[in-house]
Structure to design on (338 residues):
C-alpha cells in the first residue's frame, strides 16, 4: 500500500507528502482518528516512500521493489512497529506497551539506517503505552536521532501525556462515512444505493473492506454467520466446542461472526428501543430482525455487543483463536440466546 492506493484521506496524505517534498518532515507525527480507518496504512506508506529506491516522480513509493515488499511483510531493517506483545514470563498478551519495548525501540532508532533509506518507528495504539513507557519515550521525542522519524498512531490521543502530544505534529484522520463509502461502491461497482449502503454498513464504513468483496458474497457470509449464531442454543456442549474449533480454523469465519453479529445485535438493540426499521444496518432482513427483537430484547443484545467487542479486541492480540471462539460461542449460548 503506497499513498496513491489509499482510499480517501486525500487532505491528510497531501499534508504528509508536502512535508516530505519540502524537506520539512517532522521528527514525530501523531496520526489520530478512530480505529480501522487507515492510519497505519498511511504510516506504512510513509515508511515506504522514505525507503523506496525507485520512487515515482511524485515521491510515492513504487510498491513493488524489495524494500516496499519488505515493509509490507514487516521485515524491513529500517522500519519497526511497536504494538502489544506477549509477556514472555506469563505467555499471555500484555494489556499495555511497556518500558522495555520502548527501550528496544530507542535502541533500534539510534542505529544508523540501512542503505539510503530512513529509520522509521511506528507506535501502534500509542495510548496503551503505560506511564513509565511514555516517560521513557519522551526522550526520543526530545532528542530524535538524525534522519529518523516516529509515527504515533492513536484512537485515544487524550490518553497520551501532554508532553508527548506537544512534541508531535498531529494529523487527524476521519472515517469516510457510510454514505461516502456507499457512493464509492455505487461509482466503482455500479451497485444500487440500497445495496451499496448495506455493504458499506456491514463493512463498518471501511472503504478497503467494502470494495474488496462482492455484495452477494458479503450477504452470503452474513447469512452463514447469523445461522451459526442462531444454531448455538440448540447444540450440546461438545458440538459448540466443535463449531468453535471449525470457526477459528477456517479463514475469517470467526471474524465474520464478530462483525456481522455485532451489526445484527446492534440492530436488535436500537429496534428494541423503538428505532425505525429503516435505521437498521440489516434492514433488508426486517422479518428476521422482528423475530429476534421479540426473542432477545434490548439488554441482552447490549450484552451480546459487549461480548462480541471483547472477542474482536482479543482476536487482534491473541494467538489462541480456538479458545477465543470457545469463549464467544459459550457466552452467546449460555448468556445471550438462552
Ligand atoms: Zn519501492
Amino acid at each position: 500500500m503506497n499513498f496513491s492506493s489509499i482510499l480517501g484521506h486525500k487532505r491528510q496524505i497531501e499534508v504528509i507528502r508536502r512535508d516530505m517534498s519540502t524537506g520539512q518532515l517532522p521528527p514525530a507525527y501523531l496520526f489520530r482518528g478512530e480505529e480501522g480507518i487507515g492510519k497505519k496504512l498511511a504510516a506504512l506508506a510513509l515508511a515506504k516512500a522514505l525507503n523506496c529506491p525507485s520512487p515515482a516522480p511524485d515521491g510515492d513509493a513504487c510498491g513493488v521493489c524489495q524494500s516496499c515488499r519488505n515493509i509490507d511483510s514487516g521485515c524491513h531493517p529500517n522500519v519497526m512497529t511497536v504494538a502489544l506483545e506477549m509477556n514472555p514470563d506469563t505467555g499471555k498478551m500484555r494489556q499495555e506497551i511497556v518500558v522495555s519495548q520502548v527501550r528496544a525501540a530507542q535502541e533500534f532508532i539510534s542505529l544508523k539506517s540501512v542503505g539510503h533509506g530512513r529509520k522509521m518507528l511506528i507506535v501502534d495504539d500509542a495510548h496503551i503505552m503505560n506511564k513509565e513507557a511514555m516517560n521513557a519515550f519522551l526522550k526520543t521525542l526530545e532528542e530524535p536521532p538524525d534522519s529518523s522519524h516516529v509515527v504515533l498512531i492513536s484512537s485515544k490521543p487524550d490518553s497520551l501525556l501532554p508532553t508527548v502530544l506537544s512534541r508531535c505534529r498531529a494529523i487527524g484522520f476521519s472515517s469516510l462515512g457510510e454514505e461516502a463509502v456507499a457512493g464509492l461502491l455505487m461509482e466503482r461497482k455500479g451497485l444500487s444505493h440500497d445495496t451499496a449502503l448495506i455493504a458499506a454498513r456491514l463493512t463498518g464504513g471501511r472503504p478497503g473492506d467494502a470494495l474488496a468483496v462482492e455484495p452477494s458474497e458479503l450477504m452470503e457470509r452474513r447469512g452463514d454467520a447469523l445461522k451459526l449464531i442462531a444454531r448455538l442454543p440448540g447444540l450440546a456442549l461438545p458440538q459448540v466446542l466443535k463449531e468453535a474449533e471449525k470457526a477459528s480454523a477456517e479463514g475469517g469465519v470467526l471474524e465474520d461472526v464478530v462483525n456481522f453479529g455485532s451489526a445484527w445485535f446492534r440492530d436488535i438493540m436500537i429496534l428494541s428501543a423503538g428505532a425505525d426499521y429503516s435505521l437498521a444496518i440489516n434492514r433488508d432482513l426486517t422479518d428476521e430482525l422482528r423475530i429476534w427483537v421479540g426473542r432477545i430484547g434490548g439488554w441482552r443484545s447490549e450484552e451480546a455487543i459487549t461480548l462480541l467487542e471483547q472477542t474482536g479486541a482479543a482476536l487482534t492480540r491473541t494467538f489462541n483463536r480456538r479458545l477465543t471462539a470457545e469463549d464467544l460461542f459459550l457466552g452467546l449460548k449460555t448468556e445471550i440466546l438462552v
Remarks:
- Residues 214-336 form one domain.
- Residues 73 and 89 are 27 Å apart (CA to CA).
